[in-house]
Amino acid sequence: MDVGRRIQTLRVKSGLSQEALADQLGVTRQSVSKWELGQALPDTEKIVQISRLFGVATDWILLYEGPMLARPNRQALRFGMYLIVKDFAKSVDFYEKLLSMRVSTVGANRFAQFFFDGICMSIMNEAHLPGHDYSGCGDHKFALNFWIADLSAEYERVKSLNIGRITKIINPHSNYHFFNIYDPDGNVIEITGH
What we know:
alpha+beta; 8-stranded mixed beta sheet
């Protein structure tokens, strides 16, 4: 199996279209198609982004060597956080300067992600968040975010705990599913997955 086939395998297993993966990596759909067909190779930066996005080792993507998973347990909740902003471009510029690093991933004009110290901090463009439920939680512009592979199972687990108000699973656009649970102070925790 070559690099392109491994990228395609990861994309398909995650339920992403070529266009959705392209958006997350900041490339064209045609670029993803060429990678998967073996007509071109992604540059080093894109290999690292793919590795982080799918939680797999770069050695596995490039060489088909070593363990596939960069993290030992894909079923465990993985932590991230995001800040909801009104001026997306200015905010990305601000955090690039503050963190002394370039943004790791940009998804169209919807989100930007910074990966550091094993954490993903995202900046979400408020104008592109239809379907997100922040009602009843004041003016919060910051949310805890967790990602898990099996969202339905996690939803049932959290629901059975009966520890706070919980939304239904929401699908505001293709390939993006989540539910919210609110802590005792009304802070939102978004759990995302497939």
